[in-house]
Amino acid sequence: MKPVLFLHAITLTFGGLSVIDNLDIQVRKGSRCGLIGPNGAGKTTIFNLLSGVYRATAGEIRLDDEPIDDVPLDQRIRLGIGRTFQNLRLMKHLTVLENIMLGQHHLVGPWTRILAPLGSRWNCAWRDEAEEVAETLGLREDIHKLAQGLSYGVQKRIEVARALVGRPKLLLLDEPAAGLNSTERNELVTVLASSVPSDTTVLIVEHDTDFVRTLCDQAVALNFGRKIAEGDPASVCSHPLVVEAYLGKDEPTYRNHSKSTSSGEAAIQRNENAA
Ligand SMILES: Nc1ncnc2c1ncn2[C@@H]1O[C@H](COP(=O)(O)OP(=O)(O)OP(=O)(O)O)[C@@H](O)[C@H]1O
């Protein structure tokens, strides 16, 4: 089967500095693919290449066998590429439902049209759809609350809902578990597993390798913009080059890798070996 997402020989340089180096990645349709690697490895840069923020210096990106390199940023959503962000980007003065509905702009029109049916009795297919997505992400009881008063975990789920309501064929989740406590993280795994349609392909940047092992069926590890391992998540997370990339060669008892204390089968395994 042809991959739904195909990156071939992707290179990106900034002022002569190579950030992504001759990278090949293929992702199967419907896969939940984890993208892991230490800080600065190039993970978010890949998302920025896919969503059109950056253009590769060389190489080719295909979605559903169509090259997308020339498609401008504001048209990528129409190709079916939806994303969330490492740092929350919600309209905090709007309600949960309003925030979610804003993810329908490419399907419905400008925000004045999207939000017009709120507070009215119109039958409105897109409002109903946003409410359904909210329900599947466990947001039903908060739907009319302002985003700004809600917990970080709930706000993270609103971002996922806003991306999902745009009916993406490729969903990019940038560190969905970052900043969540273990209860929120487990809830997120459960709602993602049940709410994302099986034919939606999901690429997940995440430092929390337990999260990746639980949710994903495929993983790719990067370091310095290069692929250092790929395959099933358990093997990738424990691959010697991945362990070394996260922990370094000479620090076997390291416990607190910068952004991800819980992360890392790699980290945990190394600690256990050292104990
Ligand atoms: N616009 C830019 N100009 C110059 N360098 C950049 C730019 N964007 C990213 N980089 C560099 O590219 C490298 C990869 O950054 P990126 O944010 O993709 O890493 P990451 O793997 O997502 O890291 P983290 O886990 O910390 O988010 C870093 O060295 C970063 O400084």
Automatic annotation (TrEMBL):
Top-rank taxon: Bacteria
A GO CC term attached to the entry: plasma membrane
Molecular function via GO: ATP binding; ATP hydrolysis activity
Keyword vocabulary terms for this entry: ATP-binding, Nucleotide-binding, Transport
Region named Disordered: 252-275
Annotated ABC transporter domain residues: 5-249
Polar residues bias locations: 259-275
InterPro entries hit by this protein: AAA+_ATPase (IPR003593), ABC_AA/LPS_Transport (IPR051120), ABC_transporter-like_ATP-bd (IPR003439), BCA_ABC_TP_C (IPR032823), P-loop_NTPase (IPR027417)
Function as written in the Swiss-Prot or TrEMBL entry: Involved in beta-(1-->2)glucan export. Transmembrane domains (TMD) form a pore in the inner membrane and the ATP-binding domain (NBD) is responsible for energy generation.
Name of the protein described by the UniProt record: Amino acid/amide ABC transporter ATP-binding protein 1, HAAT family
